Amino acid sequence: MATSRFVGYLESRKNIAGSACGVVGVVLTFAGAAGPYWAVVVAGLYGAGALIAPPERPALPGFPDPSAQLEGLREDFGRLRGYLAGVELPPAASGRLVELTGLLEALLDPGWAAELLAQDPEGVHALARVVRQDIPEAVDTFVRTRWWTRLAAGAEPPERHLERQLTLLHGEAERLAAALRATEERRQESHTRYLEDRGRGG
Predict the structure, then answer these.
(1) Cα gap 80→104, rounded to integer Å
(2) CB-hemisphere CA count at 13 Å for 94?
């Protein structure tokens, strides 16, 4: 451990800058400018160089990029589909869930949409929240609330809450899809303007 720290210091900016200044001190010594205090001059210049050198910058943590996050999200979406297949839902809620998962599948499917999504970390985060948190919580809460409703009838049917939640999540996914589409449209318009400007310039 001590050896690795020593080797690390030898390779550090402080040691390199100090050594460079120390060499200047040695040159001054041979030139006769340092006098009898040459050792103090060399040591002082080394220390000054080490002090003014910029501090070492630790390496940034290697977090996965959005493309790698999307790959993990696809796997989690597959697990979510397996979970949903084993849950019995009312027809209306089931239909809304099918629409929602179909849209999510299209967004996560490797292709143009995923390529755009990989350039949008906020979009990846929003999609991950829907897949890993919002849908599982909505369905699980419905299942647990439905059991209690059977024991104490009279409250608002839990399927209505589930339908509203799935509708809201579908709207969120649609807004994300619309934002990706708008990005492609802007790219197309930008290329059109570029070609028009190039044509006028020619």
Answers:
(1) 11
(2) 8
**Residue located via tokens 């059977």:** 150
Question: In whole angstroms, how far apart are CA 181 and each of 109, 112, 113, 176, 186?
Answer: 15, 10, 8, 9, 9
How many residues make up the chain in this entry? 202
Per-domain residue ranges of the chain: 2-52, 66-201
Give the per-residue SS3 of 112-167: HHHHHHCCCHHHHHHHHHHHHHHHHHHHHHHHHHHHHHHHCCCCCCHHHHHHHHHH
pLDDT in tens, the chain (202 residues): 545 554 455 455 665 665 665 565 555 565 655 556 556 555 665 666 565 556 666 666 666 666 778 888 999 999 999 999 999 999 999 999 999 999 999 888 887 777 788 788 888 899 999 999 999 999 999 998 887 666 566 667 788 999 999 999 999 999 998 988 888 888 889 999 888 888 887 5
CA distances, 193 to each of 69, 162, 172, 185 (Å):
34, 46, 32, 12
Q: In this structure, what token pair is assigned to residue 92?
A: 């209306």
